[in-house]
Amino acid sequence: MKQFKLKNLFIGAAAITALASCHKDKINPNDDKPIDPLTNKAGIYILNQGAFNANNSTLTYYNYANKQLIPDKFKTINGRGLGDTGNDIKIYGSKMYIVVNVSSTVEVADAKTAKSIKKLDLFDNTVARQPRSVAFYKNMALITSYDGTVAVLDTASLTVTKYIKVGRNPEQLVVANDKLYVANSGGLDFGNPDKTVSVVDLNTLTETKKITVGLNPVSIAADKYGDVYVISMGDFDKILPALTIINTTTDAVKKQSDLSAAYGTPIITSGDFAYFITADNKIQVFNVKTETLEKANFISDGTVVITPFGLKIDEETGELFVTDAKDYKSNGEIFAFDKTGKKEYSLTTGISPGAIAIVKK
């Protein structure tokens, strides 16, 4: 998520490294409930940001078949680290895309093995673009960068074919109704954040309009009813965080309301529901069909997540994964909850675990 944003924010030893970095994790140590044997998950990746400017982002991997936890799968396989402040990870087809913000790189790797296919440096001459998030449309990976652009990466040739100009310091982005919606935070312009969402025509690859939303929009997701949901963080003083709902047919704002939101919380959607993290560390559930609050806290069994940081839904099982950054300095944890909000198991991660990717069999 947004730890970086300051204010708001060798081959010879590979075999030994692999053995030293793999172990059986105490999955489900306090719970007799087994992992569903019918699950289609081969494994799960957790991208750990590490500490800002410490160059210690890692990629935790858990293998469901042999119950093996690898603290840094990327380094184990490739003999090098990811870099500084890994911010997003997504799987598209057979490839995995890892966005590393401060290093200003995008790693494209084999989704099942984490073997690097290509490392892309996103710079404007010598100036780092600082990539943030990635989304996909047809044969394109679309990557926001803090320099006010969206890079268009051809997923076959793995070359950037165009940079689309959008708003200031764009954060998350989502494809809906064959259009791209980009949350322009302006968060690095201290005291003067942005308050727009850019709409990009995915045929012409140009920005067609900007939609005014709450101040400092950072998180965005689409539902199955044709709406886009935007969480804005406000000014951390008098202007509260807000949730804005946009109709993607008309690109008009349907509704906007204040809400309690943790800084930089992702918003994710699945079926009739959206999930995000509140300022008091709960996982709130919003009904996107009725556009009303469904649950004040998804977690139903009293499990305490100290610092919820990342969210991911397994669409097949309904499991909700929640990462816990704890103190942002030591190893974190990822929790798996069933669709009723009861804890199934947890795993140890690296420092500041944020984005999650599920590998299917």
Automatic annotation (TrEMBL):
Keyword Signal in annotation: yes
Domain of life per record: Bacteria
Alphabetized Pfam families for the sequence: DUF5074
Signal peptide segment: 1-20
SUPFAM superfamilies: Nitrous oxide reductase, N-terminal domain
Keyword list, A-Z: Signal
InterPro entries reported for this sequence: DUF5074, Host-pathogen_enzymatic-act, N2O_reductase_N, WD40/YVTN_repeat-like_dom_sf
Keyword Signal among record annotations: yes
Protein name: YncE family protein
Organism listed in the record: Mucilaginibacter sabulilitoris
Organism placement in taxonomy: Bacteria, Pseudomonadati, Bacteroidota, Sphingobacteriia, Sphingobacteriales
